[in-house]
Design goal:
Elements (H helix, E strand, L loop, with lengths): L14 H6 L1 H13 L4 H4 L3 H12 L7 H17 L8
Helix pairs in contact: 2-4, 2-5
Length: about 90
């Protein structure tokens, strides 16, 4: 498997640290979507930047943040219309 090289400033997470925080970043994105934040505001968050970086490192393994946002947004919309649907999937 070939991974893209992304240079990160010293104060940012390493690729390994980013991979370990993936579940946390998805959860943060889910919370922002559930709070009704606009996509413009969400794109300015650290979790968005980290999800973008992960996608850049390994696009076959990590989805684009836009895809994750759309999926979570659709799940929330479906949950509002069908209370049995879950946003946590």
């Amino acid at each position: 498997m070939v991974l893209a090289t992304v240079s990160l400033p010293a104060h940012e997470l390493t690729p390994d640290e980013l991979e370990h925080s993936y579940a946390i970043q998805r959860k943060a994105l889910r919370i922002l979507v559930c709070e009704g934040r606009s996509l413009t505001k969400i794109r300015r968050t650290a979790c968005w930047l980290q999800l973008e970086t992960l996608h850049g490192l390994d696009p076959r393994r990590y989805r684009q943040p836009e895809q994750l946002h759309d999926q979570l947004h659709n799940q929330l919309h479906n949950q509002l219309h069908d209370p049995r649907a879950s946003v946590d999937r």
